Amino acid sequence: MKISIIGGGIGGLTTAIALKQKGFEVEIFEQYKEIKKAGSGINLAINAMQIYKRLGIYDEIASLGSYTNALFISDEKFNILSEIKLLKTEQEFKTKAFAIHRAVLHTILVNKLDGVKIHLNKKLKSLSQTNNEVIFDFEDGTTYSSNILIGADGIHSVVRKSIIDNTELRMAKQVCWRGIVKTAISNKYETELNELWGKGKRFGFVKINKNEVYWYALTNYKIDYKVEFSNANLEELFSNFSPVVKQIISKTEKRNIIFNEMMDLKPMSSWHHKNVCLIGDASHATTPNLGQGACQAIETAFVIAECLSTENNINLAFEKLEKIRKKNVKKVINTSWIVGKIAHLNNRIGIFLRNNIMKLIPKKITEKQSTSLYKLNY
Ligand SMILES: Cc1cc2nc3c(=O)[nH]c(=O)nc-3n(C[C@H](O)[C@H](O)[C@H](O)COP(=O)(O)OP(=O)(O)OC[C@H]3O[C@@H](n4cnc5c(N)ncnc54)[C@H](O)[C@@H]3O)c2cc1C
Questions:
Q1: 150 touches ligand 1 (CB under 6 Å)
Q2: In a domain, 334, yes or no
Q3: Model's pTM, two decimal places?
Q4: How far is the CA of 79 from the centre of ligand 1 (A)?
Q5: Residue range(s) defining the domain that contains residue 53
Q6: What's the CATH code of the domain at 272?
Q7: If you measure from the C-alpha of residue 320 to the centroid of ligand 1, how many angstroms do you get, rounded to a whole number?
């Protein structure tokens, strides 16, 4: 059976690795002329790292990434509001969390493809289906066919638009800048992910290897972010934050900063139609507030390979995938949306209440919530 994957992002690459390990004939089609060398970092939480352990990729990520054992949320002056230590979760799942440069992760994944063919410069245009074949056309005029097509083509998925109507992208009314900086931050942040929540703004940073720090900065926008932030001066925008923030921003090469609008995909009732199925951001894009978008894509990638290898009927395999994954993914999407709204409160009374309530929540409860996020149900 031949399985074709549209999209060579984290989701598509992980799916290809998992399927290849199950013995399927797999190929990937990617729109760009090379697999993305994205210039930012990514947090791979304990759920994703459990999958990479099962796929035999854990050790390489651990050696090229940076170990993270605690998540701190503070106010803009670095007064701690909430902390999650991961030690107990690590022990429970025998796995650790890592932050890593996205380009390094992509290289690790590509090197694990084990002969999977990657067709580059192939931008999907449209597809059609018969009962046991999917035929798909690319912008360059070429046409291919396969027994199964997996859409791993991201939040603006062409595959999704071809098989499912009425899906909804929801704008969070927030924008995000991301950067990587070679800078010395205090040793005390060595294994921590820190987020500072201010007034309608947030700044996070984490080490991704011995020499580099990955950071992200978000703020609300009112009507048109392109007008409001086309010439944004980040140092000024975050000038009332701790000096650590200013130090990180000022040392970053400005031309390498990535700027995006934040959005998600309203949870969908189905991810498949006949022999076509969606995974990752194509089916369950979430806002980045829990750092779980790619982690969820990695989980779905693993489960789709499991389902296809244990079910003879393709439709039953896709239904099983949804049964295993949809509930958890929906919870992540909705929780992340709410966390984003709470993190970006913009009025002083709301912020005062939020900060004081957060300080009162027992660590046991926040740690229990995070542990439940990392538990695999398969
Ligand atoms: C600011 C920010 C921070 C984040 N931080 C984290 C984090 O710390 N941890 C985490 O787990 N997640 C994080 N995420 C989410 C994560 O980046 C995504 O969920 C993840 O990259 C999705 O992977 P994917 O492979 O499904 O989609 P994508 O990464 O979007 O990959 C899709 C691929 O398909 C290709 N493609 C698209 N259209 C076509 C086409 N028509 N034909 C052929 N190819 C096509 C694209 O070129 C791309 O290579 C963050 C997201 C943002 C915006």
A1: no
A2: yes
A3: 0.97
A4: 33
A5: 2-169+264-374
A6: 3.50.50.60
A7: 24
